[in-house]
Design goal:
Oligomer: single chain
Strand content: under 5%
Order of helices and strands: HHHH
Number of domains: 1
Shape: elongated
Structural class: mainly alpha
Distance between the termini: 61 Å
Helix content: 55-70%
Number of strands: 0
Length: about 130
């Protein structure tokens, strides 16, 4: 039997985790490229080392976003709930929070792929 849902255990901040992971990925990726070009490769140098680091950051960010999204998807389907989640019950509020988390995770994953696509096109610091 599943444990009862208590609203005091709900965490609203979970909805912002995936966008925060994307924002961190974005800042760290561009900071890595900037530091690489300024300190290691020079203005006309290759981005090869930084490209590998950004690839690793992207894989880690996508894995973390997938985990958050999967947990949101599970919450969305809590006890076989159906959309729309518009009833004034703790279960429907839990499902709505899960659906929003899953959707924001999908959007954040697309944003990570878009930000990381730079490594496929940019080969040098210039």
């Amino acid at each position: 039997m599943r444990a009862e849902l208590h609203e005091k255990n709900e965490r609203l901040w979970v909805i912002a985790v995936s966008p925060a992971i994307w924002a961190t990925h974005f800042v760290v990726s561009y900071a890595t490229a900037a530091i690489w070009c300024a300190k290691v490769a020079g203005r006309d140098g290759s981005l090869s080392g930084a490209r590998w680091a950004i690839f690793a950051y992207s894989v880690a960010a996508l894995a973390a976003i997938a985990l958050v999204g999967w947990n949101g998807w599970r919450a969305h389907g809590y006890r076989g709930g159906r959309i729309p989640h518009d009833a004034d019950t703790p279960e429907d509020r839990h499902r709505l929070l899960g659906a929003a988390t899953a959707l924001l995770s999908g959007l954040s994953a697309i944003a990570v792929v878009y930000a990381a696509s730079v490594i496929a096109f940019v080969r040098s610091c210039a």
